[in-house]
Amino acid sequence: MSVRSILFTLGICFSIAVYPSYGQADLLSECYSENATNPIARAYILYKKRVWREIYLDEKQNRPCFIRGKEISKVIIDGVKKGVITPYKNDQLVEVMPMSEFLKNLLIAGEEDPSKATDHEFFPSEISTLSLVENVIFNKITSKKEYDIESIQLIIPGSKNPPTHLDHPIATFKYKDLLAYFSTLPFEAVCWYNMSNTAETLTWMDAFSLRLFGSKIVKIENLDDANLDELYQNINSDGEGVDLSQKIATKIDLEYEYFLSDY
After folding, report:
1. Are 68 and 81 in contact (CB under 8 A)?
2. Which burial class, exposed, middle or buried, applies to 164 when counting CB atoms under 10 A from its CB (0-12, 13-18, 19+)?
3. Could you say which of 13, 81, 173, 263 is the most buried, measured as most Cβ atoms within 10 Å of its Cβ?
4. What is the CA radius of gyration of the chain?
């Protein structure tokens, strides 16, 4: 262990000794979030940002978990219908969605009257967008950036949702609930297929942990709760707003770890 690491560890110990909790819970020693899948004490976090990403399952990079008949959306929906996964109304993960509302969200709206539902559900292949919410954390102890996924939302993209052609959210799920459910299923049901070498086929849990999926950052926590397009759409008319959004994504995924590793 380096001298700097030893001094840093001693500093944490000294801080805890000098500033006792006086009978109250020591917040610094607690996990930063009750929905964390990779619990980290607040005292060990140098930097944290809450990030929203969209994963487009029909893109080539993400197709390994969207094989026809074995779509990740199908497996999640089946889990809800069996009563082993709890759906939530949004990514706050507080308000549970009633089963009746969940089933209604799966129904295709009538072509003539959008308020009138048909008896048919969307096919799993039509539920092709995942909205992923995670915390990007720089861990003081390991001096590494860590991704801690909190929730996943199933979305039917507007292109597959006539007649409104608006994105249609189905429900949101705690990622740790999904991990627990996936771990009970046969390997073949949760395969992230490696088409180049099927001997190296992984599970969805492994693939998400290894960041094998492709995604687009659509929002980073901010005071206005606005997505990146809303924040930068009016900067100018030559497309700089789009460039700025991409630059922010690059900072989140690449640059922060490089600069913060010195600390």
Report:
1. no
2. exposed
3. 173
4. 21
Task: List, edge to edge, every strand of the sheet that includes 168-174.
Answer: 168-174, 144-156, 129-139, 45-56, 216-220
> Measured between alpha carbons, how far is 9 from 3 in angstroms, rounded to an integer?
10
Which pLDDT tens digit goes with each residue over 180-232? 999 999 999 999 988 888 888 899 999 999 999 999 889 989 888 888 877 77
Please, which contacts does 103-109 make with residues 24 or more away whose CB atoms are closer than 8 Å?
Answer: 105/168, 105/169, 105/170, 105/171, 106/77, 106/170, 109/161, 109/163, 109/164
Q: Nearest 5°: CA angle at 203, between 221 and 250?
A: 30
- Rounded to 10 deg, the angle between the 72-81 and 175-182 helix axes is 90
For residue range 22-40, what is the model confidence (pLDDT) as tens digits?
444 577 788 888 999 988 9
Q: How many CB atoms lie within 10 A of CB 119?
A: 6
Instruction: Please give the Cα distance from 186 to 55 (Å, whole number).
Output: 24
Spatial separation of the C-alpha atoms in residues 20 and 63, rounded to whole Å: 51
Q: Where are the domains of the chain?
A: 31-260
Residue 158 contacts residue 164 (beta carbons within 8 Å): yes
Tokens 């509302």 identify what position?
A: 101
